[in-house]
Design brief:
Elements: E1 7-12, H1 22-28, E2 33-35, E3 44-48, E4 66-71, H2 74-80, E5 89-93, H3 114-124, H4 128-135, H5 141-157, H6 161-178
Helix pairs in contact: 3-4, 3-5
InterPro entries: Tsr3-like, Tsr3_C
Domain 16S/18S rRNA aminocarboxypropyltransferase Tsr3 C-terminal: 46-171
GO molecular function: rRNA small subunit aminocarboxypropyltransferase activity
C-alpha cells in the first residue's frame, strides 16, 4: 500500500468543543474523512485503540488501507473507560510510548490528539512525509517531531510488534531514570 493511498478516518464522538478537536480540523481540511461508528463494522484497516494489546508496527502497513482514530475527550475516556463496541474487521492497534505536543496535554505520555495519533501511526508504518503533512496544519505540529523524533526513529526501525514492545520498554525505562520533564528529548 502506497502512503498516499492510505485513507484516514475520524470517528467524532463530540465530547469536546469542535474548535479544540484536531480531528475536526483534519476533516475540514480534507486530510481525513469523518465517519460514524456504525461504518466501522463494515471496514477493514487499523483502528487506533489505546487499550489494544498489540502495538502498531511496520508489519501493519499491509493492513493499512485505512487508519481510523476515534476522536474523543481524554477526560471522558478516563472516566468511562473502554467503549464496548464491536469493530468488525478492524485490526486494533495501540501506539507505543510517545508524548503529546498539543497545548492541552503537552509532554504527557500517551495522551495524543487525534492528529498526533494519525501522524504517529503514519510515521511508524513508514509514511513519514504524510505524517509531517498532517501536523504541518497545527502551530505545535513540528514540536511533536522534536519531542518524539528519536522514539519514532527507533519504532520505524522495528520489524514487528515484539521489537516495538522491547524498544518501548527500554525507552520508558530511560525516561523514568532521567526523571520527569525530559520526555522525548535526545
Amino acid at each position: 500500500m502506497e502512503c498516499d493511498e492510505i485513507k484516514l478516518f475520524v470517528v467524532r464522538l463530540s465530547e469536546d468543543s469542535p474548535s479544540a478537536s484536531t480531528g475536526v480540523k483534519l476533516y475540514k481540511l480534507g486530510l481525513a474523512r469523518r465517519i460514524g461508528l456504525s461504518l466501522l463494522t463494515k471496514m477493514r484497516g487499523i483502528l487506533l485503540d489505546p487499550y489494544a494489546q498489540t502495538p502498531l508496527s511496520i508489519r501493519d502497513r499491509e493492513l493499512a488501507n485505512s487508519i481510523v482514530v476515534i476522536d474523543r475527550s481524554w477526560k471522558v475516556l478516563e472516566k468511562e473507560g473502554r467503549m464496548n463496541i464491536r469493530f468488525g474487521y478492524m485490526s486494533r492497534r495501540r501506539l507505543p510510548f510517545l508524548v503529546a505536543s498539543n497545548p492541552i496535554n503537552y509532554a504527557k505520555a500517551f495522551k495524543l490528539s487525534s492528529a498526533e495519533a494519525l501522524a504517529a501511526a503514519l510515521a511508524i508504518i513508514g509514511c513519514f512525509e504524510r505524517a509531517e503533512e498532517i501536523l504541518s496544519k497545527f502551530k505545535w505540529g513540528k514540536n511533536f517531531f522534536a519531542l518524539n523524533g528519536r522514539f519514532l526513529q527507533i519504532y520505524m526501525q522495528a520489524k514487528n510488534a515484539e521489537e516495538i514492545e522491547k524498544a518501548e520498554d527500554a525507552l520508558m525505562k530511560e525516561v523514568l531514570e532521567r526523571g520527569e520533564g525530559d520526555e522525548g528529548e535526545g
